[in-house]
Amino acid sequence: MNRILFQGIGKLKGLISFCGKCDEETNSHLICTIGLPFLVNLMSYDFNIEAQNIRDIFGECKMHEIRMLNLEQHIIGKGQRGCKQSALQLVDYYLEKNLSLSVNELVRELLGNDVNE
To answer: For residue range 92-102, what is the model confidence (pLDDT) as tens digits?
Structure first.
């Protein structure tokens, strides 16, 4: 299994381009409320015997791909949405595979380096 699952190929989009979608105008988190938990379940040992492979592939994703998930929008969103917990779990999985990246550095990258220390 390779990164095509997350990235897509040609005109066929990968999971990353779909699972993190949220409509900022209407503040709708319908797609991501299903999509982000789906990604988390793919990486869960309880749901997928290939979870380690999926985690490895996810950990290799470039930052611009991770940004496509809009994790910061799901984490800072108001209220209790299913996507908030899943976004935090995905951040945790990404940091597990990228030990040289600190939480602060990841937040800066997700927010486009607009965060003050």
So the answer is: 999 999 988 88
